[in-house]
């Protein structure tokens, strides 16, 4: 529009452009992903792409995936959360105290841990939304104070062990027949959904999505059945994703969240109660603190003083890598999941190759920079 | 598609040329070429300055050669001082440190040229919109010995009084032998300030006239390529039931000490009526409307009755639920939700109507948005495109669609055609008229005197927070301006047709030159 007598405009007209199928950033990510996977596979002499390793990778990635989805929602609404690592640690301390000191059964422990997360989320929400302190500052305070509280309560000691049934929340597996059933049900429901939406909008049969769906389910079956079934941690992620995707993509709540993040004032004048939405965003984040803390405590069968360290940075990085724009209002919850997968792949692959964790941190930092640079250049405002 | 494909015109020293055209006709693009914003090599063709072919590689080169562009959007840094704004990019320094005394003196010179009696050290935000515009023009003139001054819609955000002030100053600039290229959408200004006109459409010059008197309809035809739609004011409906009743409304800022914006206003609006609310910027019109809608953040007292139900909405959400809609003045800041699609923008204020238990019924939502887009002739009619890719006029249609989707009983439109091109402007007037015929009460706030006179069924004028007068549509411009500026008695010759006083003034100026 802006150029004067530029001659490049007709190029590509009428062709099916890649950007019509998926966002440029998502495609760039898939490219990076493939390159990484192939590199790891070759360099590790075939150790990387095995059901055993891929199952491990998914279990490693569960916690950051869950937190990243919550942070993504906050960023979409135009807020941020820097406290997730400490908040998850503090909830983990609560869970460990309930298990080791009080001897509570599994279900009450989980419920109370989530409640504890809600309290932390609501606390930050009140400061950020009701009192209007920028969430950057509120959650920076949380980053310090929550971990400090945890250390004070435990003298920075490790609390262990958890009961075996509690540990199984994260570390158990769904039996192989059940795995088949779940995967089959997901495939059936998803295909039915795709066909139904296509028919409603009078589009042709969605061949490409169906092929992709079938391939994903097939690969999942190969991974899970090839090892010990679906890990419970993955189920938690799947359930959280299904709920949050529906919330953000299909409900008025999700739609209004995007509008608030894109233009606060216009959303207010369109009658959207901004404060309720922002406060509930922090509370939702609190629920996810609780879920992540449960998975973390169960996975380690303990609460350790270093657990959750740098989790907030991984979560924000995952969201940004997955196409959630820090300007607010742009991105999908699923993107955060893909971003988390990429980060965990880098971690896992480099560990297999015996590359030091210091180098891993350097590489992750570079990936984050590249993702942000991609965000800036690809989503440049016209 | 090039934005400009064929343009050819000239302008002489001491002459004011008006450049007309709808949004997207290529006026601004062409001007940006002249001013070096689009550097040499991005365009084909040539232009001459004083007979010498000009080839600017950047804005600074253009400014050094005397071509100065004052863009439509003001680039004022509100918290910096007036002096810093004027001298931005060329602050005088001594040994790398800002020479404050010299900066003050230079800024003072610029301000003196326009006889602005303000302290150059106070923040620029303390100036009115027209004063800000003037300091940007004086800043532009200060940068070099200007030969060509390009003003891109300088009056878009000004009231008539402020615009008149600007026109007087433009005459001063013209008297120094500067050639002025003036871009505007307000046809009533042309006869006041311009000597010749050039009309562009779709990137090409389609009309060039040696004078500008009495050619308005010719200009409109050339701009939109066909005859404008029939004047919507011809088919007015009889007003029906009272929708809005306001009694003794006071609106104050949030701090206790701030002076009231609206002081004891009472008014009523009926179904099927377009009530015009005229006044200068700062007269309290927007504050009054925000208070009725429930969007005002400060303190409000007084009785509001909507649809017979007493009580003032305390949030925009409550306002919408009570059947009030408000198309806000500043489209970019408080209306458009950029980065989101047309569909989402249209649904923003009425998503609940296409939801079941909080879940969006996407088929109904799309059907509603598509029918509104068709109804308003949105171009292009693609509801999945991002709103920022549309022209100003089409963005305003999207905003109107948002409020039509709420099915309001009272629709407040605040400067509904600000920054909107002629074609879309008539479409919006037609839509508002149709809505009022269907029984919506419309409260139209406008600083555009032509708009108020043509489109409103009844006109209220506000001055300093109070209603200064109520008029019928046949009222003269002078009467409206007198009420809006607080003049108590109206001169007796106000029945004279509106163009004549301006013609006389123009001749006076002609002698002076």
TrEMBL record, chain A:
Places the protein is found:
Cell membrane
Q: Where are the transmembrane segments?
A: 26-44, 56-75, 106-123, 130-153, 173-195, 207-224, 230-248, 277-296, 333-352, 358-378
Superkingdom of the source species: Bacteria
> Which keywords does the record carry?
Cell inner membrane, Cell membrane, Membrane, Sugar transport, Transmembrane, Transmembrane helix, Transport
tRNA processing listed as a keyword? no
Write down the membrane topology.
Multi-pass membrane protein
* Principal localisation: membrane
A single GO CC term for this protein reads: plasma membrane
Example GO molecular function: transmembrane transporter activity
> Is Transmembrane helix tagged as a keyword?
yes
User: What role does this protein play?
Assistant: Part of the binding-protein-dependent transport system for D-xylose. Probably responsible for the translocation of the substrate across the membrane.
Official protein name in the record: Xylose transport system permease protein XylH
């Amino acid at each position: 529009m802006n150029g004067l007598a530029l001659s490049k405009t007709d190029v590509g007209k009428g062709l099916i452009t890649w950007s019509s199928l998926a966002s440029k950033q998502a495609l760039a990510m898939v490219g990076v992903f493939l390159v990484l996977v192939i590199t790891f596979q070759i360099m590790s002499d075939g150790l990387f792409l095995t059901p055993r390793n891929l199952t491990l990778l998914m279990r490693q990635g569960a916690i950051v995936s869950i937190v990243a989805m919550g942070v993504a929602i906050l960023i979409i609404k135009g807020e941020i959360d820097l406290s997730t690592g400490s908040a998850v640690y503090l909830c983990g301390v609560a869970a460990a105290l309930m298990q080791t000191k009080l001897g509570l059964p599994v279900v009450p422990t989980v419920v109370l841990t989530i409640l504890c997360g809600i309290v932390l989320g609501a606390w930050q929400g009140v400061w950020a939304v009701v009192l209007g302190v920028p969430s950057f500052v509120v959650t920076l305070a949380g980053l310090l104070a929550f971990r400090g509280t945890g250390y004070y309560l435990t003298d920075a000691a490790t609390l262990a062990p958890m009961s075996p049934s509690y540990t199984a929340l994260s570390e158990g597996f769904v039996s192989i027949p059940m795995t088949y059933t779940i995967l089959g049900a997901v495939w059936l429901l998803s295909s039915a959904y795709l066909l139904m939406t296509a028919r409603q909008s009078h589009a042709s049969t969605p061949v490409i999505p169906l092929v992709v769906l079938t391939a994903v389910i097939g690969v999942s079956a190969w991974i899970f059945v090839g090892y010990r079934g679906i890990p419970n941690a993955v189920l938690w992620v799947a359930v959280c994703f299904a709920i949050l995707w529906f919330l953000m993509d299909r409900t008025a709540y999700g739609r209004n969240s995007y509008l608030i993040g894109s233009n606060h004032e216009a959303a207010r004048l369109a009658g959207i109660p901004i404060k309720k939405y922002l406060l509930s965003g922090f509370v939702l984040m609190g629920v996810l603190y609780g879920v992540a803390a449960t998975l973390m405590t169960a996975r380690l069968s303990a609460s350790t003083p270093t657990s959750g360290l740098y989790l907030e940075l991984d979560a924000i990085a995952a969201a940004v890598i997955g196409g959630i724009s820090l300007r607010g209002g742009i991105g999908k919850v699923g993107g955060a999941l893909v971003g988390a997968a990429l980060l965990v792949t880098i971690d896992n692959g480099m560990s297999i190759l015996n590359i030091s964790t210091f180098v891993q941190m350097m590489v992750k930092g570079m990936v984050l920079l590249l993702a942000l640079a991609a965000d800036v250049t690809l989503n440049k405002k016209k | 598609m090039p934005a400009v494909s064929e343009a050819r015109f000239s302008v002489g020293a001491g002459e004011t040329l008006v450049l007309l055209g709808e949004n997207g006709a290529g006026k601004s693009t062409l001007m940006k070429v002249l001013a070096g914003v689009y550097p040499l090599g991005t365009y084909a063709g040539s232009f001459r300055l004083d007979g010498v072919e000009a080839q600017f590689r950047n804005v600074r080169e253009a400014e050094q050669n005397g071509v100065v562009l004052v863009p439509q959007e003001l680039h004022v840094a509100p918290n910096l001082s007036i002096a810093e704004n004027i001298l931005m990019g060329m602050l005088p320094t001594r040994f790398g440190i800002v020479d404050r005394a010299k900066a003050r003196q230079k800024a003072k010179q610029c301000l003196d040229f326009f006889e602005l009696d303000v302290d150059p050290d106070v923040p620029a935000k303390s100036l009115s919109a027209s004063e800000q515009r003037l300091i940007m023009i004086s800043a532009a003139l200060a940068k070099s010995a200007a030969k060509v001054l390009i003003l891109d819609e300088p009056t878009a955000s000004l009231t008539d009084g402020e615009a008149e002030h600007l026109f007087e100053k433009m005459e001063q600039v013209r008297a120094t032998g500067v050639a002025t290229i003036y871009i505007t959408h307000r046809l009533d200004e042309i006869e006041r300030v311009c000597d010749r006109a050039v009309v562009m459409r779709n990137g090409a010059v389609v009309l060039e006239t040696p004078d500008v008197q009495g050619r308005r309809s010719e200009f409109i035809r050339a701009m939109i390529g066909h005859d404008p739609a029939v004047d919507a004011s011809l088919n007015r409906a009889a007003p029906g039931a009272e929708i809005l009743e306001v009694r003794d409304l006071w609106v104050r800022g949030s701090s206790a000490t701030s002076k009231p914006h609206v002081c004891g206003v009472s008014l009523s609006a009926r179904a099927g009526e377009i009530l015009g609310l005229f006044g200068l910027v700062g007269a309290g019109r927007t504050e009054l409307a925000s208070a009725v809608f429930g969007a005002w953040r400060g303190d409000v007292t007084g009785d509001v009755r909507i649809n017979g139900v007493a009580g003032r909405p305390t949030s925009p959400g409550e306002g919408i639920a009570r059947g009030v809609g408000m198309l806000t003045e500043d489209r970019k800041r408080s209306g458009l939700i950029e980065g989101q699609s047309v569909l989402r923008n249209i649904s923003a204020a009425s998503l609940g109507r296409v939801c079941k238990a909080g879940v969006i019924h996407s088929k109904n939502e799309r059907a509603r948005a598509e029918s509104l887009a068709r109804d308003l002739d949105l171009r292009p009619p693609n509801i999945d495109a991002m709103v920022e890719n549309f022209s100003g006029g089409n963005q305003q249609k999207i905003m109107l669609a948002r409020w039509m989707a709420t099915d309001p009983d009272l629709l407040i439109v605040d400067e509904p055609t600000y920054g909107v091109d002629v074609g879309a402007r008539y479409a919006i007037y037609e839509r508002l008229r149709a809505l009022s015929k269907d029984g919506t009460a419309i409260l139209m706030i406008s600083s555009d005197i032509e708009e108020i006179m043509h489109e409103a069924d009844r006109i209220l004028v506000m001055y300093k927070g109070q209603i200064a007068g109520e008029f019928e549509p046949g009222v003269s411009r002078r009467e409206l301006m007198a009420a809006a500026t607080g003049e108590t008695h109206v001169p007796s010759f106000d029945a004279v047709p509106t163009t004549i006083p301006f013609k006389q003034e123009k001749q006076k100026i002609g002698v002076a030159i």
